[in-house]
Amino acid sequence: MGAGTCWSLRTRAGVRLCTAPGGRGDDAMPDRIDKPDVVRLVVQRTNREYSVVEEILDAALEEVYAAFKRGESVSLRNFGSFYVRPEPQQWVFRFNPAQRLRKLFGWSSTYRGDV
Question: Cα dihedral sign for 104, 24, 2, 20?
Protein backbone atom coordinates (compact mmCIF):
# COMPACT_ATOMS: atom_id res chain seq x y z
CA MET A 1 0.00 0.00 0.00
CA GLY A 2 1.10 3.54 -0.69
CA ALA A 3 1.77 6.36 1.70
CA GLY A 4 -1.64 7.91 1.14
CA THR A 5 -2.59 11.10 -0.61
CA CYS A 6 -1.97 14.59 0.76
CA TRP A 7 -3.13 18.03 -0.33
CA SER A 8 -3.50 21.49 1.14
CA LEU A 9 -6.81 23.24 1.60
CA ARG A 10 -7.02 26.91 0.75
CA THR A 11 -7.87 28.17 4.22
CA ARG A 12 -6.39 30.79 6.47
CA ALA A 13 -4.96 27.92 8.48
CA GLY A 14 -3.15 26.41 5.47
CA VAL A 15 -4.07 22.92 6.62
CA ARG A 16 -2.49 19.91 4.96
CA LEU A 17 -4.81 16.91 4.86
CA CYS A 18 -3.98 13.31 4.00
CA THR A 19 -5.88 10.14 3.28
CA ALA A 20 -4.71 6.99 4.97
CA PRO A 21 -2.30 4.70 3.11
CA GLY A 22 -4.26 2.90 0.43
CA GLY A 23 -6.75 5.77 0.48
CA ARG A 24 -9.37 6.38 -2.15
CA GLY A 25 -7.29 8.57 -4.45
CA ASP A 26 -6.60 12.22 -5.21
CA ASP A 27 -10.26 13.15 -5.58
CA ALA A 28 -11.26 11.66 -2.21
CA MET A 29 -12.02 13.73 0.85
CA PRO A 30 -9.78 13.15 3.88
CA ASP A 31 -10.70 10.25 6.11
CA ARG A 32 -11.36 12.48 9.11
CA ILE A 33 -10.33 15.47 11.16
CA ASP A 34 -9.91 14.79 14.86
CA LYS A 35 -10.81 17.01 17.80
CA PRO A 36 -7.24 18.28 18.34
CA ASP A 37 -7.24 19.36 14.68
CA VAL A 38 -10.51 21.24 15.19
CA VAL A 39 -9.11 22.93 18.29
CA ARG A 40 -5.94 23.94 16.42
CA LEU A 41 -7.94 25.35 13.49
CA VAL A 42 -10.19 27.38 15.81
CA VAL A 43 -7.10 28.65 17.67
CA GLN A 44 -5.65 29.85 14.35
CA ARG A 45 -8.94 31.42 13.24
CA THR A 46 -9.69 33.20 16.54
CA ASN A 47 -6.20 33.87 17.96
CA ARG A 48 -7.24 32.35 21.30
CA GLU A 49 -5.17 30.08 23.53
CA TYR A 50 -5.31 26.35 22.75
CA SER A 51 -6.41 25.48 26.29
CA VAL A 52 -9.27 28.02 26.17
CA VAL A 53 -10.57 26.74 22.83
CA GLU A 54 -10.25 23.13 23.98
CA GLU A 55 -12.19 23.90 27.17
CA ILE A 56 -14.98 25.63 25.22
CA LEU A 57 -15.22 22.80 22.67
CA ASP A 58 -15.29 20.19 25.46
CA ALA A 59 -18.04 22.11 27.27
CA ALA A 60 -20.08 22.45 24.07
CA LEU A 61 -19.77 18.73 23.34
CA GLU A 62 -20.73 17.85 26.92
CA GLU A 63 -23.90 19.95 26.52
CA VAL A 64 -24.72 18.10 23.29
CA TYR A 65 -24.20 14.76 25.04
CA ALA A 66 -26.38 15.88 27.95
CA ALA A 67 -29.17 16.89 25.56
CA PHE A 68 -29.03 13.45 23.91
CA LYS A 69 -29.17 11.75 27.31
CA ARG A 70 -32.34 13.75 28.04
CA GLY A 71 -33.78 12.60 24.71
CA GLU A 72 -33.56 16.07 23.18
CA SER A 73 -32.58 16.91 19.62
CA VAL A 74 -29.71 19.32 18.90
CA SER A 75 -29.82 21.84 16.06
CA LEU A 76 -26.70 23.72 14.95
CA ARG A 77 -27.60 26.48 12.50
CA ASN A 78 -25.83 26.17 9.12
CA PHE A 79 -24.57 22.71 10.08
CA GLY A 80 -27.52 20.43 10.78
CA SER A 81 -29.74 18.79 13.34
CA PHE A 82 -29.19 15.64 15.37
CA TYR A 83 -32.27 13.71 16.40
CA VAL A 84 -32.54 10.92 18.96
CA ARG A 85 -35.55 8.86 19.90
CA PRO A 86 -36.02 5.72 21.95
CA GLU A 87 -37.36 2.58 20.33
CA PRO A 88 -38.19 -0.70 22.08
CA GLN A 89 -34.71 -2.27 21.89
CA GLN A 90 -32.48 0.73 21.14
CA TRP A 91 -32.13 4.45 20.59
CA VAL A 92 -32.33 5.80 17.05
CA PHE A 93 -29.85 8.52 16.10
CA ARG A 94 -30.31 10.62 12.98
CA PHE A 95 -28.46 13.56 11.43
CA ASN A 96 -30.20 15.95 9.06
CA PRO A 97 -27.65 18.22 7.32
CA ALA A 98 -28.39 21.92 6.95
CA GLN A 99 -28.92 23.37 3.47
CA ARG A 100 -25.37 24.77 3.38
CA LEU A 101 -23.87 21.34 4.11
CA ARG A 102 -26.21 19.69 1.59
CA LYS A 103 -24.96 22.11 -1.08
CA LEU A 104 -21.33 21.31 -0.22
CA PHE A 105 -21.93 17.67 -1.13
CA GLY A 106 -24.02 18.44 -4.19
CA TRP A 107 -27.29 17.27 -2.66
CA SER A 108 -30.60 19.01 -3.27
CA SER A 109 -30.38 22.35 -1.46
CA THR A 110 -31.99 25.77 -1.34
CA TYR A 111 -28.78 27.38 0.01
CA ARG A 112 -27.62 30.29 -2.17
CA GLY A 113 -24.40 31.41 -0.44
CA ASP A 114 -20.82 30.26 -0.75
CA VAL A 115 -19.82 26.91 0.72
Answer: positive
